Amino acid sequence: MSKRVGLIAVAAMLAALAAGFLTLNANAATDIDSDGDGVYDWIEAELGSDPLDPDTDGDGLTDGEEFSVFGTDILNADPDNDGLGDEAEVKIYGSNPYWADTDVDGLLDGEEAYIYGTNPISDDTDMDSLHDFAELFYLGTDPLSLDTDGDGFWDGWEVGYTDPLNPDTDGDGILDGEEAFVYGTSPLYEDTDDDGLLDGDEVHIHGTDPLHPDSDGDGLLDGNEVNTGTNPLDADTDGDGMPDGYEATQECLNPVTDSALGDADGDGLSNIYEFSIGTDPCSPESLASFTAYVDGMGGLPDPVRKSILRKAADAEHLLCDSGNINGGLRKLGDVEDYVDAQAGKKISESTANVLRDYVQSLIGQIEAGQDVCTFA
User: Fold this and answer.
1) pLDDT tens string 326-365
2) Judging by beta carbons within 10 Å of its beta carbon (0-12, 13-18, 19+), is residue 166 exposed, middle or buried?
3) Cβ(105)–Cβ(86) under 8 Å?
4) Does 355 map to a domain?
5) Residue spans of beta strands (DSSP E) within the chain
């Protein structure tokens, strides 16, 4: 009886071993990867891929990479229909194989990669603050160049301000970027300082200051100086001690001719001296002009001013109203004597010298028979 039981137990064990062997062999039979793509044949059968082709959809990725690594479609080389295969999207560009426009810039990933050369994962390939789509289809700028016209101004800065397709928007001979960052001139106005010269001409030809209409400070605009032949970089072109602007306003003087020691009006006072004391070098001095000069002269105490004006009025009355030349000359002599007496006391020596010279000019003109009664 016990022997029989033992045989039965052994038989059961052998049956169990046989069943286990069969199960192991069955699993081994199903865990086959015929094409070596990393996906078992039985899984490929379920997915519908070809167990004999490691890249069923021919997109450059093995079925195993698509299934286990990237999660892409084993059966479709370009599931988002953007013209860019899965391998290019995941391995080269880093774009989304399930999103036709990864960077949402209005351009398909495939268009960016193969047609325009832009970056499918950046909506602004050249980082100029303009979207690639806008550059291509609205602005005409280059989405691959930060500065399409090469003027030193980024395209993004130029839009709405200067012309991103024209390196010299105002046509003054200076690049827009140089105007903004080097010279400080306006890239929108060809003559920033309104002196009659183009900014480019000031910088490249004349050497004048494009931000200052009168570079040498002589009272003449740079453009006027260039046009009339004076030097816009020299306040006194002829070197006669009188600024170009002053000479240009005097009809008897020429800013390119040294006339400092001349006496254009023949009043006995040189042109340079008249410039220095503020009288008119083109008109002879008169009693009336002397009166006006003294009346507006600085550095004179009122009592002194009144005394000089009273004596001058007496001289004018004798000379101009009575025709008494000798009497008038004596009165002018009185003026000179009075100035001598006040010099260094109530008036400075320099002021006294000017008054003496003025009176001497009047006396000289009278003695030469010239008219000092008419105020020119």
Assistant:
1) 999 999 999 999 999 999 999 999 999 999 999 999 999 9
2) middle
3) no
4) yes
5) none
